[in-house]
Amino acid sequence: MKKYVCKVCGYVYDPAVGDPDSDIAPGTAFEDLPADWVCPLCGVGKEDFEPADE
Length: 54
What we know:
By secondary structure, the chain is mainly beta.
């Protein structure tokens, strides 16, 4: 599964980790995040993320 990076603050969403603070389980692909999920650091929506270069 691909990591995604926030274009605003640089937070990296790693599907292997999920987002425990938002009750997103490890193994959740970025595409499967709820539509109202926001960056845990700066609060922007999914539309402000892009695939991370790996």
